[in-house]
Write a structure and sequence with these properties.
364 residues; alpha/beta; D-Maltodextrin-Binding Protein, domain 2; 2 domains; 11 strands; disordered N terminus
């Protein structure tokens, strides 16, 4: 009996040990459950709205999941620099599932994302990159029409991206706004009304195409932000930089395919949403830092830099068509309460300390 009891105890202890080992292994296995996601962009990794995709979204997701004691981890497939699609397809690629997460350039699809492009209809309204991002993220949080716009495009929005205010880079020196009359100026479609207000002819393009368009004579100059111009070395083909600061604008951000997002466990969804705002913060930091680097770099490289007088900034703002009113009219035809949205936007800008050069909402 004594031997049997001893054997029973030993057997029980061994069984308990084995159970504990299995339990630990199960927990380890659960902790290593992997989910596969693709993240992509049409622009290079050096571009400020793309860099945080890697450094923030990819770089921090698993660490944040670990902090939550989540059982899930993400295995990322990364495709930047147009590996999967070009700049005209940034929205379609996310909404259509070509990528799970991606940078979406609303500037390239103004008809599908008019609310995200509202800053292009309100020239000279915001005063800092941080203000612009905070205004747009707030509107996407509180205004159901902004949320509906993303939902209709099958995208879950995480956080906005911003550009430093736009400037003018030209092949010719600029002494007054009259110098632009009859010139061909390249820019995104959303800035065409700004170009026309200068008396110039707008030429469609985007960052990846600007250098060749300027080099080959397709355009005489560009409306561009400094942080975009410097990495592309645009000063080599358009050496005259006129600092204008049209007011920093948001032009899209990071988002996720709605169906892919719905498949994610709640803790993964939570982390991705949180990191979307961290993406915005990092984008702001990069733009602020990048602006100083760009100006110093172009100066050292021989670019001829001047600052547009405040009187010309006001004249440019005043000479622009009633863009706010036109934006309202276009979007109200689509059943969007655009007048209310424009008022909400302008009031949000003012609440954040903005001092618009033109009260676009009071012209409707």
């Amino acid at each position: 009996m004594q031997q049997s009891r001893r054997s029973f105890l030993l057997t029980s202890a061994a069984a308990a040990g084995a159970a504990a080992t299995i339990s630990s292994a199960s927990r380890l296995f659960a902790a290593e459950e992997r989910l596969r996601l693709t993240i992509a962009a049409s622009h290079p990794i050096t571009d400020p709205p793309v860099t945080p995709l890697k450094s923030v979204i990819v770089g921090r997701t698993n660490a944040e999941l670990e902090k939550l004691k989540s059982n899930y981890r993400i295995d990322w497939t990364e495709a930047y620099g147009g590996a999967l699609y070009n700049f005209r397809e940034t929205l379609e690629a996310v909404s259509g599932g070509v990528t799970d997460i991606g940078w979406i350039g609303s500037i390239f699809v103004p008809a599908r994302l008019p609310l995200q492009n509202i800053m292009y209809a309100t020239l000279f309204s915001t005063n800092s990159v941080r203000m612009s991002v905070n205004v747009m993220n707030e509107l996407n949080d509180k205004n159901s029409w902004f949320q509906k716009e993303w939902a209709e495009n099958k995208v879950v929005f995480f956080g906005a991206c911003v550009a430093d205010g736009y400037h003018l880079m030209t092949k010719f020196p600029v002494s007054s706004l009259a110098d632009f009359k009859g010139k061909k100026i390249v820019g995104a479609a959303a800035v065409a009304p700004w170009i026309e207000a200068l008396g110039a002819a707008p030429v469609g393009g985007a960052l990846p195409t600007f250098y060749s368009q300027l080099q080959t004579g397709v355009a005489d100059g560009a409306v561009i932000h400094a942080t975009g111009a410097w990495p592309l070395k645009l000063h080599e083909v358009v050496p005259y930089l006129t600092l204008v600061d049209t007011g920093p604008v948001t032009y899209g951000g990071v988002g996720m395919n709605a169906a892919s997002f719905a498949k994610m466990p709640p803790d993964v969804q939570k982390v991705l949403r949180q990191l979307g705002r961290a993406y915005s913060e990092e984008n702001v930091r990069l733009v602020e830092e990048g602006y100083e680097t760009a100006i110093k770099g172009m100066t050292a490289a021989g670019a001829k830099i001047t600052k547009m007088p405040e009187s010309d900034r006001k004249k440019w703002a005043a000479s622009a068509p009633p863009m706010g009113k036109l934006w309202v009219n276009d979007n109200e035809k689509r059943g969007i309460p655009a007048r209310e949205i424009l008022t909400d936007f302008m009031n949000t800008v003012r609440a954040h300390g903005g001092k618009p050069l033109r009260d676009w909402d009071k012209e409707t």
